[in-house]
Amino acid sequence: MEARKGPMRFYRVLSMSLFLFALLSGCVAQQPSFDIIITHGHIIDGTGSPWSSGDVGIRDGKIAAIGNLSQATAKQKIDAHGMVVAPGFIDMLGQSEETILVDPRLPSKIYQGITTEVTGEGGSAAPLTDALVNSDKMKYEHLKITPDWRTYRQYFARLEKQGIGINVADYVGATQVRRVVLGDADVQPTSGQLEQMKSLVRDAMRDGAVGVSTSLEYAPAPYARTEEIIALAGEASKFGGIYATHMRSEGDAIEASIEETVRIGREAHIPVEIWHLKVAGKANWHRMPEILAKINEARAQGVDIAADTYAYTAWSNDFSAFIPPWAHDGGDAKLIERLKDPATRARIRKDMMTPSKDWDNEWNEIPGPESVLITSVQNPKLMPLQGKTLAEIANRRTKTRWTRCLTS
Length: 408
Description:
Elements: H1 5-25, E1 34-43, E2 52-59, E3 62-67, E4 74-79, E5 84-85, E6 89-91, H2 107-110, E7 114-119, H3 130-135, H4 137-143, H5 152-162, E8 167-170, E9 172-173, H6 174-182, H7 191-207, E10 211-215, H8 226-237, E11 242-246, H9 254-268, E12 272-274, H10 288-300, E13 305-307, H11 332-340, H12 342-353, H13 390-396, H14 399-407
Parallel strand pairs: 1-4, 1-5, 6-7, 7-8, 9-10, 10-11, 11-12, 12-13
Antiparallel strand pairs: 1-2, 2-3
């Protein structure tokens, strides 16, 4: 019996030491209190691991503990039984760079659980010039925004001053720097003009942009050749940036677009993100395995390339996106002139009705005018059109002329 006293005394000392350690570290049965405990949720931690069941304790606006917190107290408990509890979602392409100035809280994002948004699709908040502000004044007037910044440094300073409801990361748009230097014309930059564009990218990266982006389907972006994009992406690469793209085609010519995107990543030595990957048009729907195989092949060859997608079949766009790129040469004013000319309008209509790999013809990728819903107008006189399909609008106007034009 006496022989056991030594070990028993040791175990008691050890137990007391562990208890004191637990007491000091707060890991005793009486767990600490929290501001909020979310209980019984399916926890997804963002690492790619399978979900686990448990509780999340929040204190001072931060996650303080994860696990079994059944013995802890909280000012508020939220029962998340049967629901997913996850870190804030990242919207890989949110396009709120202007609306965040309208309502800094961005409730449309917060209500979806989005806490970080990546934005700047070809066009971007900066750089700006007086000429661009004047060209896009209808947009700013519609949003009731005063564009009092010209650089990303000034734009970010405005966000800091007003406060924002989510985290944001901004790309500098290749279209944006092209418009600053070349305007909206279908022209190619001289070596000097390309240097100006590269300098604008460097400035934006120094100010805090995360990379260069393109939206190559929409004028004036289609006027840019691959070499121009490689040059701009190469500047972002020097600052550890990313090249993100809405590719030149997401329909009939998607294979060539993937090849161009891979080339840009390889030659600019930059990671690549393909935005909202899809194969548009019913005739192409079966091609997704082929497209994923091409992306995986590029990855296997050492190109740092990835893609994201969205889980719905609708998309939102400017109405003018249906019109072929050549008709946009010179900007909106020139486009409107062409639309007013009967002969040019007939040529535009013919191009819209003709399948082509030369441009991403979105009109050929939808069933027809009944599939186009007008969601937003800038002219107050056109407000009655919001919420109606193009087919409904056509039928309310001159039925014969409009219906034939849209569906024949």
